[in-house]
Design goal:
The protein is mostly helical. Helices cover about 70% and strands about 0% of the residues. It is rod-shaped and about 85 Å long. This is DUF7260 domain-containing protein.
Length: about 250
């Protein structure tokens, strides 16, 4: 059966991989936005408890949610209403409470401080929350850059395979003379080899960025860790079939 325009790419995992990456990018951006909102909410919470004559009475303060929150409860409420409100959070991380999530994101020391009484609230804990929030944002921003680079690499591969697929479709439909088809098939073979070398070079570079972490973050829930190489394998199989038919005089 003759190839139609772009059918070669549709036979690969590239469209699914691009959709997967786009979804991951969207999720990461939602998380970044949520942590940035949480960070802003922290600035509404007093850095220190207000005490009188050696007592431990925490001064009440007003937030958008309640006029009388302790600082710890205000932090947990802010976290619940920002980070834990991200629509995919529960499915992705399986965290039910602010403290559970805060411990995983910010560390046990921060979670312990938030679980204590008024005496555990301090400027140190307040600063730890800010620093940990900044780190959570920066980590996700770095991951987003990695996803963007991977998406760009796949887009370039799609363009290359689109061109190859269009040419293979013409050859399979019997366009050109026999000699022209032979020459064009050799050109396509060279193109596939060049694209494969470029993909392998990119993957070697990717591995230097902590390959296992990359794969767990980017392709942990996908069908393959290497959609680019998988697509090139499929393209080569299509090429081999068409070339075989050509030399058998069947095109």
């Amino acid at each position: 059966m003759a190839q139609n325009k772009n059918q070669l790419v549709e036979q690969t995992l590239l469209p699914s991989a691009q959709s997967h990456l786009a979804e991951e990018e969207s999720r990461l951006q939602l998380e970044i936005d949520a942590f940035e909102e949480f960070y802003s909410r922290l600035d509404e919470i007093p850095e220190q408890s207000c005490r009188t004559d050696g007592g431990t009475l925490t001064k009440t303060f007003r937030t958008q949610e309640s006029p009388t929150h302790s600082p710890q409860e205000a932090v947990k409420t802010a976290y619940q209403e920002t980070v834990l409100s991200v629509k995919h959070w529960q499915d992705a991380y399986n965290e039910d409470t602010p403290l559970e999530s805060i411990e995983n994101e910010f560390g046990p020391d921060v979670a312990t401080g938030l679980n204590g009484g008024a005496e555990t609230w301090s400027s140190l804990l307040w600063n730890q929350l800010h620093a940990a929030s900044e780190e959570a944002i920066e980590t996700r921003e770095q991951t987003l850059k990695v996803l963007t680079a991977e998406q760009q690499q796949l887009s370039e591969l799609v363009c290359s395979l689109d061109e190859i697929g269009d040419e293979l479709a013409l050859i399979e439909r019997g366009h050109y003379t026999f000699d022209d088809r032979s020459n064009r098939l050799q050109t396509i073979r060279d193109q596939l080899e060049q694209v494969t070398r470029s993909q392998q070079a990119y993957l070697r570079q990717r591995e230097t960025m902590d390959g296992k972490l990359f794969l767990s973050i980017v392709y942990g829930n996908f069908k393959t860790d290497y959609p680019g190489l998988s697509a090139l394998t499929t393209a080569r199989q299509v090429f081999d079939r068409i070339e075989l038919r050509h030399w058998a005089g069947m095109n």
